[in-house]
TrEMBL record:
Residues 10-338 form the FAD-binding domain. The keyword Oxidoreductase applies. It holds the Pfam family FAD_binding_3. This is FAD-binding domain-containing protein. InterPro entries: FAD-bd, FAD/NAD-bd_sf, UbiH/COQ6, UbiH/COQ6_monooxygenase.
């Protein structure tokens, strides 16, 4: 594509090689093979093998998202470096509490009848670089996916017959559908003039990896501390990814510490549960904010993942919401193409928006509410919280429903989340 005066035609162009963008491309090619042509346009040069220094995060990948990756032939490359979560423990205490009693514990497996097999694990902890490597390899293996990087989209317009797209180097593309998947600061969303509503939390997320003496036994721990949630996510071996929320000013102080001082802050929060600790990865941080778009779609244009919604990481559901977007949009595009309909029509994209917008808005509101409920040290409210957690701990049916919800197996599920091919 060196001639700037010619136009290269694709069925779908995806702006952004994010987890959502890569997964969507893979889903469509898995459904149609040689009958579809996809382009991914990304501003960053593609890295053949992302390392943990590029992204220290780990995701609590739900059973529904894992089923999708299995169906797309991606999970095999991720499974070896992922950790099944066998149990989840929740505490609620002040930072200097001498004892942090476990208020709520639940087994993290799905009951027979909710799963394709008995005792299916409801979630796995997956390092972000491993997930990116697997998705990138799956995309690279397809001759029907063209990756244009580094490149950006300068402008696009609906011509009636398709979406006309001009790259920043003058190359021209045409597609039936353009998808914005660049993340929270989506330039294609801005060019489509889709507004967002959102708010800052005044908090900073900190993430790092530790090694520890005692085995975690697949147990994930969520400490609710006054500054925000502190999550210990188990990784293969005696390692864990720590994701915690701090007041922005306190986070700045912690991040400025040397390794010994930083580790001391970690040890205070882990509270001796895992024995002796050492740092086993870089520390990274980012400010926390929530946003929702006022629309998920326009003429021949749709948003997926963080471009459509950014949520608080309190429940670790951001990537799972993104993959539900992917599964829903891929299903609608596949159904439209098989019926000879236009996948970029307002009718098709309106169905996608109705399918995903309410679920994402409710999730964002729930995560924000939980953060506000637990990110304080008011004694009476803590007593009420602890009573409520203790009550839930004695209700096995409620706990089973919570596990199914976190596993991404409730509501109107896309076929890929049910391990069904498109």
């Amino acid at each position: 594509m060196t001639d700037a005066t010619s136009t290269t035609r694709f069925d779908v162009v995806i702006s952004g090689a994010s987890f959502a963008g890569l997964a969507l491309a893979r889903a469509l090619v898995t459904a149609f093979g040689d009958e579809i042509r996809i382009a991914i346009v990304d501003l960053k040069p593609r890295t053949a093998s992302p390392s943990a220094t590029d992204d220290a995060r780990a995701f609590a990948l739900s059973a529904g998202a894992r089923r999708m990756l299995e169906t797309l032939g991606v999970w095999g490359d991720v499974a070896a470096v992922s950790q099944p979560v066998t149990e989840i423990q929740i505490t609620d205490s002040s930072l200097d509490a001498g004892v942090r009693p476990i208020l709520l514990t639940y087994d993290n497996h799905l009951e027979q009848g909710e799963a394709t097999a008995a005792r299916e694990t409801a979630s796995h902890i997956v390092p972000a670089p491993a997930l990116e490597r697997a998705l990138s390899a799956a995309v690279a293996s397809s001759e029907n996916i063209t990756v244009l990087a580094p490149a950006g989209i300068a402008e696009f317009a609906d011509t009636g017959a398709g979406m006309s797209i001009t790259l920043d180097d003058g190359r021209k593309l045409q597609a039936q559908l353009l998808v914005g998947a660049e993340g929270r600061r989506s330039p294609s969303r801005d060019r489509a003039r889709i507004k967002t509503v959102g708010w800052n939390h005044g908090q900073t997320a900190i993430v790092t990896t530790i090694a520890h003496d005692r085995p975690h036994e697949g147990r994930a721990i969520q400490h609710f501390l006054p500054a925000g949630p502190f999550a210990i996510l188990p990784l293969p071996g005696n390692r864990a990814c720590l994701t915690w929320t701090e007041d922005a000013a306190e986070a700045e102080r912690i991040l400025a510490l040397d390794d010994a001082g930083f580790l001391a802050e970690v040890e205070t929060r882990v509270a001796g549960r895992l024995g002796a600790l050492t740092l086993a990865g870089p520390r990274q941080s980012w400010p926390l904010a929530t946003h929702l778009t006022r629309a998920y779609a326009a003429a021949r244009f749709a948003l997926v993942g963080d471009a459509a919604h950014g949520v608080h990481p309190i429940a670790g559901q951001g990537v799972n919401l993104a993959f539900r977007d992917v599964a829903a949009l891929a299903e609608i595009v596949a159904d439209s193409l098989r019926l000879g309909l236009d996948p970029g029509s307002l009718e098709a994209l309106g169905r996608y928006e109705r399918w995903r917008r309410f679920d994402s808005a409710m999730s964002a509101a729930a995560f924000d509410g939980l953060n506000r409920l637990f990110s304080n040290d008011w004694l009476l409210l803590r007593a009420a919280r602890d009573f409520g957690l203790g009550l839930v701990d004695r209700m096995p049916e409620i706990k089973r429903r919570l596990v199914a919800e976190a596993a991404g197996l409730t509501g109107d599920l896309p076929r890929l989340f049910k391990a069904e091919r498109l």
